[in-house]
């Protein structure tokens, strides 16, 4: 986890995105690279575009990129993080790009980074966009770290794995192994009412312990609420400061129509979420 990508768009949770990225990077002495982010051109008319995106000419894209660069520069400077030229082998930051990249370009660029940090999508104009999160989830082949609207103060000490025994969650756990090995406590949370066929949470915890992870397994009821609500409720009760989750165990279309844990967590999580598809 030595290379962290932070697409910068001046949405409502950008401060939380940068705080989350820096908390994560400090754990691994990482390089954090900022890039200017904007929607793909066809998305400019979509209902979820940020309020700042009103003109699509190249001068506007360059100006927005410069605004993002200045925001990122000021944040890292105030946090006393050196630039990459000054500290190439330790925690440092850099910037790439003079013109805002669309979601599809950012998702392809993310393929060479260990993790990409984005804001949790919101429903209001000016919030982080769902299109960006889904582009990175489906097209980068890398995990996504979603920052909550409110900047966290700690990340990665108590990690909850939302274990439903699925292939998607298995991949998320594998990608999160560096994080799990550093955690003080890892809880494998299973909600029996919402699982697929596969190894139990206790078996996963046993094998994680063999890999040096301080893991334990718990089962908690999901009755009376949706799967996503149950995951977030139990994660909070367990004191989680990071949730590990596989994305879209059900089909994406089914979740769009009927709802699902991934859709709920993408829109409602109040803690950082490490997620992959």
Could you please describe the fold and organization of this structure?
Helix 3 packs parallel to helix 4 (130-139). The chain is globular, with a radius of gyration of 18 Å. The protein has 277 residues and is α/β, with parallel strands linked by helices. It folds into two domains: 3-147, Rossmann fold (3-Layer(aba) Sandwich), CATH 3.40.50.620; 158-276, HUPs (Rossmann fold, 3-Layer(aba) Sandwich), CATH 3.40.50. The chain starts with a strand and ends with a strand. It is built from ten helices and ten strands. Strands 3-2-1-4-5-10-9-6-7-8 form a ten-stranded mixed sheet, with helices on both faces. Helices cover 38% and strands 18% of the residues. The longest helix is centred in the first third of the chain and has 21 residues, at 58-78. The chain has helices at 14-28, 58-78, 103-109, 130-139, 167-175, 177-182, 201-210, 227-237, 252-258, 261-268, and strands at residues 3-8, 31-36, 92-95, 115-119, 144-147, 158-162, 185-190, 215-219, 242-246, 273-276.
Helix/strand-derived class? alpha/beta
CATH topology of the largest domain: Rossmann fold
Strand content: 15-25%
Mass-distribution shape: globular
Please give the share of residues in helix: 25-40%
Name the CATH superfamily classification of the largest domain: HUPs
Radius of gyration from the CA trace?
A: 18 Å
Q: What's the CATH architecture of the largest domain?
A: 3-Layer(aba) Sandwich
Ranges with pLDDT <50 over ≥5 residues?
43-55, 250-259
Counted up, domains total: 2
The first-level CATH class of the largest domain is given as: Alpha Beta
**What is the count of helical runs?**
10
Calculate the mean pLDDT score and round it.
89
Largest sheet: 10 strands, mixed
């Amino acid at each position: 986890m030595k290379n962290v990508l932070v697409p910068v768009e001046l949405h409502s949770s950008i401060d939380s995105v940068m705080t989350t990225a820096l908390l994560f990077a400090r754990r691994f002495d990482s390089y954090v690279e900022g890039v200017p982010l904007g929607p793909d051109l066809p998305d400019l008319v979509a209902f979820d575009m940020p309020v700042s995106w009103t003109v699509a000419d190249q001068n506007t894209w360059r100006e927005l990129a410069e605004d993002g660069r200045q925001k990122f520069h000021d944040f890292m400077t105030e946090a006393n993080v050196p630039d990459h030229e000054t500290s190439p082998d330790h925690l440092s930051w850099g910037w790439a790009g003079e013109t805002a990249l669309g979601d599809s370009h950012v998702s392809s660029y993310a393929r060479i980074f260990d993790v990409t940090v984005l804001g949790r999508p919101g429903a209001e104009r000016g919030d982080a966009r769902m299109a960006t999160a889904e582009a990175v989830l489906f097209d980068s082949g890398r995990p996504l770290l979603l920052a909550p609207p409110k900047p966290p103060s700690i990340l990665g000490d108590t990690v909850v794995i939302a274990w439903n025994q699925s292939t998607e969650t298995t991949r998320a756990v594998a990608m999160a192994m560096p994080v799990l090995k550093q955690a003080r406590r890892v809880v494998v949370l299973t909600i029996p009412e919402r699982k697929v066929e596969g190894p139990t949470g206790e078996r996963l915890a046993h094998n994680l312990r063999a890999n040096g992870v301080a893991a334990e397994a718990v089962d908690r009821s999901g009755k009376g609420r949706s799967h996503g609500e149950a995951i977030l409720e139990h994660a909070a009760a367990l004191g989680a400061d990071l949730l590990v989750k596989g994305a879209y165990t059900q089909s994406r279309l089914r979740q769009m129509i009927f709802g699902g844990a991934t859709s709920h967590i993408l829109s409602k999580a109040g803690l950082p979420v490490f997620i992959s598809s």
